[in-house]
Write the structure tokens for this entry.
Amino acid sequence: MQTTFPRLLLQHAAQRPADPAMREKEYGIWQTRSWQAMAQLVEHLACGLHQAGLARGEHIVVVGANRPRLYAVMLAAQSLGAIPIPLYQDAVGAECVFPINNAEVRFAFAEDQEQVDKLLEVRPSCPQLVAIWYDDARGLRNYSEPGLASLDTLIDVGGQFAAGQPGFFRAEVEKAQPDDVAAMFFTSGTTGNAKGVVHTHRSLLDRALAGAQFDKLTAKEEVLAYLPPAWIGQNIFSYAQWLACGYIVNCPESAATVMIDLKEIGPSYYFAPPRIFEGLLTRVMIRMEDASSIKRKLFHSFMELARRVGPALMDRKPVSAWDKARYALGNVVVYGPLRNNLGFSRVRVAYTAGEAIGPDLFSFYRSIGVNLKQLYGSTETAVFVCLQPDDQARADTVGIPISGVEIKVADNGEILVRSPGLLKEYYKNPQATAEVLTADGWYHTSDAGFLDAQGHLKIIDRVKDVGRIVGGANDGAMFAPKYVENKLKFFPYIKEVVAYGDRREKVCVMVNIDFDAVGNWAERRNLPYSGYTDLAQKPEVYRLIGECVEKVNADLATDERLAGSQISRFLVLHKELDADDGELTRTNKVRRGFIADKYQLLVDALYGGLSEQYVETQVRFEDGRTGSVSATLKIADTKTFAPVKAAA
């Protein structure tokens, strides 16, 4: 695409100046900013940054949630040929040090006091960080740190410069070329330091447009931006596609108001990882359990019909007139009100990605009329590699390669991708770049999978994680830990799972319960508990989780390749896995190796045949303080099943 992000902004401002570009909820009221107002804000910020000394090719960091003025900062930097790096707002200060030093960042932008404190904390380790600007001034009135200033001061300085040199901004915008670097995203890194993924205007906009064309997105779409901007998935949906399509991006007031804001906006284009969809459904089922018997009976009756008829209607398959009529009635009394309650009454396209989604969960949303689909991509591919057509959405695939994408499967089962959306390089890491990019342009995804007969891509696991059972009755059987973990996470009572088994004679897992779902389950059974640790070790909870494990084992027994991956033993962890404790990445992916080292005592107990094990773990609280959680964990054996031979 022969354009850049700032040029697209100016194009929208010229063609439809008064149309809304972004909305932000503040003090309970939605504030709208037009394309013309956004362009003027970006111009003033760019001129202010020029006055501050920002150079072409230099990096800046932006730390915060989705805020129109922070998006404007990124556009302003790009207008001057500089490169924005969004960082995770929930990262601890130490996690910001490497990106800031690696990219030699001098200028940082923070959303609020929390982010300012974080940057000031790491400043001694980042001596080149000379200036920090903040968006929200609350709590910062008495701060007198050198180089710390409000974003308003930068805007004022830039506004004065722009008034004196009205042609400067547009001249700078015109200097940028599509193949210039547009942004850098640091991968969350399950091992070692994160890597800076470098993307150009061309790579990001090419994939943004390819996705938009696939789903026929227009300027009329409404999007809710509530996930971290540092995650490229959110960045593509609320930045790259926003500028490519010109639709409206809505920024919630806070994380606590997202569900309310979702209902108020009623987005037409929606994206969430599976855990968000799981959480929404869990809340629905909890509320239904507390409803009257008549309402419960009505709900379950119509949902049984929806599960049978809804997906077929979504896929435009034939359905009897009687079932259509009954579904239409269900739409009035159950499905429609339910979609409205979830905030999905206007959703035309909804996507999930990042992890596998459970078939029942996937079917639930499609059965009530939500066009939920899966996509496949990564930071290095600018997200869009495979998407599911509206009438070919399936829980066991991630879709078909879209425009511009080529896929091939290596001899070891690894998926290789060639696409205009591939990263330019890993920043200052030529060795890592050479490991993933071949001379003829193929990107090594590190994912194992295959293309099925219909051309849909199926992902099994990470190539490095696919292992073998060694010894015992299942000697030599394939072990795919992520596949096993995801099958358990499909149950609403299970939030996180860590599976082990490679080069061992059996599979064992550690489980995190979903505190809300299991807590509600316990309360309905008059089962008292004093907190997460107490609830997790209840014998009744172990029986509940054991039933889930046995169902997964029964299902695995029918899979010829993975029947040997059945789970022999499990325990329920005494604390929730947490990114602040290093157990998850900032995108909530399990750091399996780190957890194995941290909880080596528990791994040894699982494989040593023990029935319980005492453990004490240090934890980090949100305010930076540390403490410890201890408990004696029970370890349970589970039933496994003989492999079911496929019919001849």
Summary: The first helix runs from residue 5 to 15. The longest strand covers residues 626-637.
